[in-house]
Each structure stands twice: as C-alpha cells, then as structure tokens.
Amino acid sequence: PYTRHPRRSMITRKGQSAQDEEDDNTPDSLRKLYKIGKVEGDLGKQACTAFLEQYYSQNDLDKFWKDFYPEAKGQKIKVVGPNDGEAGVEASLDIQYITAIGGGVNTEFWSFSGRAPDNPENEPFLKWIYLVGNTSDADVPKVFSTSYGEPEHSVSSAYMHRINVEFQKAAARGISLLFATGDYGVATDDGTCPKSRFQGQWPAGSPWVTGVGGTTLGDYVDDETAWSGSAGGFSDVWDRPDYQRSAVSEYFDSVSKRRLPDASHFNQTGAGFPDVAAQATNFQVVDFGVIQSVDGTSCACPTFSGVVTLLNDLRLKQNKPTLGFLNPLFYKNAGAFMDITDGANEAGEGCGPRGFPASKGWDPVTGLGTPNYDKLAKLVNSLP
Prior knowledge:
Number of strands: 17
Low-confidence stretches: 10-20
Structural class: alpha/beta
Distance between the termini: 45 Å
C-alpha cells in the first residue's frame, strides 16, 4: 500500500504512433516547456533506483527511444543489481524519462531486492544508500532519481535517522538525491489521514534530499498549475532547515488563514516539502510494447533529475565539481524557477476539507516551482 507506483491514466493508446495529443507529456513537450530544447550532455553519470521487484524491459526502452527520443538510440544502460523479472510501469517510466531529459549522459539502473528491516512493505533504502557510500567518487552517479517512498509513520525513527546520516555523507560528496513526494496530496497512499494528521513523507521530506512534487498543464500554452495529487506538507520528524525558513515564513504570511487547512492537521515547525516540482500527468510510457499514459510524481522526479544532470554537465565541462546537495542553492535563487501559483493538493478521508494551496514563492504543493533550464544554466555557469 505504500508503493509509489504512478497512476495509470484512463487512456491506453494501443498501436498508436508517437504523435502527441494536446495534453500528452513526451520528451519533446517537456524539453520545450522547461526551455531545454535540444541540449544534451556527455559528462558525468545519472541513475534511477528500483525497488519492490520493479524492472525495465530493454525492448520497451528501445521502442520509447525510437518513438519519442531517437537521439538516445544505441545508448547502453549499466544495470546494478537484479533486472530479470517482468517489466513494471514504474521502472519503465523512470529509465525512459531520465534518459530522455538527461540526454546523452551515461545512465545506470540501480535495482535492489528485499524489504526494509522495520517494515516488510517498505523499500530497503539503507541497502541502496550504503552501496552509494561504498562506491568510489569516480564510479558513483552524481544524480539519483528515486520514485519510491512512504508516510513517515510507517518507518521507525532509528531506520530514518540512520539513512539520513548517509544522505548527509552523499551531499558532502557532490551527489544529488531526488525523491518523488507521492500522489495523494496531504494523505497517505490509501487516501486517508490517520488521526486527522496530514502525512509527512519519507524520504522526500528529509532536509538532506530534494523532494519533487507535481504539476499539470493549465489552460494556456506553457501554463502550469499544481497537480491535486502532489504530496506536500510538513514533516513530523525533521525540523525546518535554515535554508528554508524564510521561504516557508513568507508562505504563511502571504496566504490568508481561510485558505489554509486547520493548523491542528500538520506540524507548523517541520521541514516543508516538496522543494521543487515538474509535470506529473499524461506521460507517454512504453510498457509491454504499448504506449500508456500515466500520472504521478514518479513522472516529475526523473524529469527534474534529468535537468540536474544537464546542469552538472555544464559544471564538469568547466572542470568544476558537481552540484551535490541542491536545496541551499535553489532556495537562494528561487527566480530560476517557474513559479506555480494556481491549484492545491487534495485532502482525503479524515483530512479535513482542504489541503494546501499553491501560492507565489515556495508552497507545500509545488515547492519553488518547475525548472527553467535557461535560467538555471546561467546560474550554474556563474558559480565558482
């Protein structure tokens, strides 16, 4: 029940050629929306993670590249761990979109069997991050996209804190860790709020990673609005980090109380999430040879991660270190993002009448907003 598999949209386009529908998201539409254009990189490495027996099919990936991103034809994916089971839409989505947005850069698929030691339904994140810590700087990917997670209440405090130490070590090594926040607004993945409490999300709510929320297309060209499923709110475990204090205070100062959920539902001093966002609906994914349309922050995370990979490529071309821990840089430069001011995330059973509204600046639905590659590239090129 805590898996972060993307929601399948109602449309399955069997036998359809890769001709975009108006509201479909494809590599071309995303690259246009986020001002990436034809930019590709060639330095560094990126990776997506896989848990819970999610695997990808090379045949599906080849068809996706043929139909939607022929520039990637012939690229070789390095697989770390198992990939010998039936393909799943989660793994297919992740590998297809990280290779298409972070185009040209070496890509790896890190796959892990088993479950967390404290909950048989949760992912073995410690197994993954421990391997990251034991892989040399020369070999480890500097961007990891993870589309998995669960509510904080389903994870033991000891397990979270142990992993969070490893997150800090990765940050110090110049590794960027991005996590999808979830797909049920302020609720758990079954759409409820136990004890009327909005759900902190793990690992996306950790102050040492970058949580990625979701948007959807608005009514106008290049217009985005908050996706109602975008999980966001405030952690019940982690205190608000210094880099985020001003942005969160501005949110509460600027949004009228009548638009906000009742304060009894959430931790008013906790770390806010998401940090950023990207499109999360109508992604065209090849699964078992069929083009399917799927929704979820699982779509947003590999998309944003691919942008970070291209930014790292700019750094590496100048013999500079990779960006590593992204959040302090991002919060100091909010103008490099496309601010999302419309929409809200959904509530659920026992959650009260409303979630959080999007607003000018940071908000607990879309974070700082979606990437503007042109502005982010200028920012990154200006850094020492």
